[in-house]
Design goal:
Blueprint (H helix, E strand, L loop, with lengths): L12 E13 L9 E11 L2 E10 L2 E14 L2
Antiparallel strand pairs: 1-4, 2-3, 3-4
Length: 75
């Protein structure tokens, strides 16, 4: 995602969670469930990447949110 989301070289950069918006838990997830998380690129502003994500268990949506992370060069 880093290389697709802004031309960053994955080996030279780290992504850090910066913000979570509109988080909704839709149904309960229990130990042993396999949670699949899918993300869709929304926008890039400077070093910030915004992604809409949804989590599902056996094809049923269990959560959704918009997350923002910052991509910084490794020191």
């Amino acid at each position: 995602m880093l290389s697709a989301g802004g031309g960053h070289n994955k080996s030279e950069h780290n992504a850090y969670l910066s913000r979570v918006d509109n988080l909704k838990f839709i149904c309960k997830v229990i130990p042993g469930d396999t949670v699949i998380v899918e993300g869709k690129f929304v926008e890039k502003i400077a070093d910030f990447i915004k992604v809409k994500v949804k989590a599902s268990v056996q094809g049923r949506k269990v959560a959704e949110a918009t997350i923002t992370y910052i991509v910084l060069k490794k020191i």
